[in-house]
Structure prediction request, 152 residues.
Amino acid sequence: MKTFASSLFPFVLVLGVVAAVYGFWWRTAAPPPVLAPLGAPPPTSPAIEDRWGVRVKQVGVTADGGLLDFRYLVLDTDKSMAMHQDPTTQPYIIDEASGVVINSSPTMSHKHILSPGLTYFELYRNPKGVVKPGSMLTVVIGDLRLEHLVAQ
Prediction:
């Protein structure tokens, strides 16, 4: 005949194993990415402004985290139009914490006329919500990079 203590042993054993696995997972889980303070002025790139005729204004997280709103000020119409004519020079975004590359090609059409002094936007998919407000990003246009842009 089983005693109460012997019938409780398998339950206590399983509970102990579950607690040990959870404790190990909790101690080894990756810490959340360090987010930068919101509202910081965006970095600038004289090289991008000179080569592509645009000044990056911001990347904002929108649509409940599902989209990124990339905004840029046009400084030179001809240079900025050239940025969209070749698929290899269209802007893309890299999340610095995860290394995820975010491309706008499937989301946006780039067939608009740009005017100097106006701010334009492009929408990018935010895969699995990887970019959060405060995430550090790199914007790449052609072979030029603007690093440490804080997502808004």
